[in-house]
Amino acid sequence: MRKLVAVSVVTSLFACSDQKEERYATWAEANRAGAVERGWLPPFVPKNARDLHDTHDLDTNEQKLTFTVPPEAVRPMLDSIAPRSVLEGKLAAKALDEAGWKASEAQDVVATLLCTRSYSGTVVANRRTGRTVYLRPSEWAMERCPRPL
């Protein structure tokens, strides 16, 4: 009987999880599903983004969003974020690590800290492949942000 109660408690804890995971083939599909309206796709994510995978925690507001854009869209995407700070050295290495990338992948990668009033986060993007990871929050690097205007 104790085992049954323990299994029921564990099952109910997992069933009530505030961890959400969504996958979308395209930005348009994510938009139709309401992900843009709910704020799970930040405004800088281009409409030509594909292979979107979003995991977020409703309690902590932590989020990891991965997607791919055409390589030529990486720079305009990053330029659309203002203010922002490009991360270098140890902070860039930390951003790559949190994004799940190896240091050996750093050659074609740019790590950027978002410094907006409404949210903080890091964007790690591969300029050659367009693979992008957005993580929030990123308070560990906020001292690098320029002061909001």
Automatic annotation (TrEMBL):
Pfam families: YbbD_head. Residues 18-68 form the YbbD head domain. It comes from the Bacteria. This is YbbD head domain-containing protein. It comes from Sphingomonas parva. The lineage of its organism: Bacteria, Pseudomonadati, Pseudomonadota, Alphaproteobacteria, Sphingomonadales.
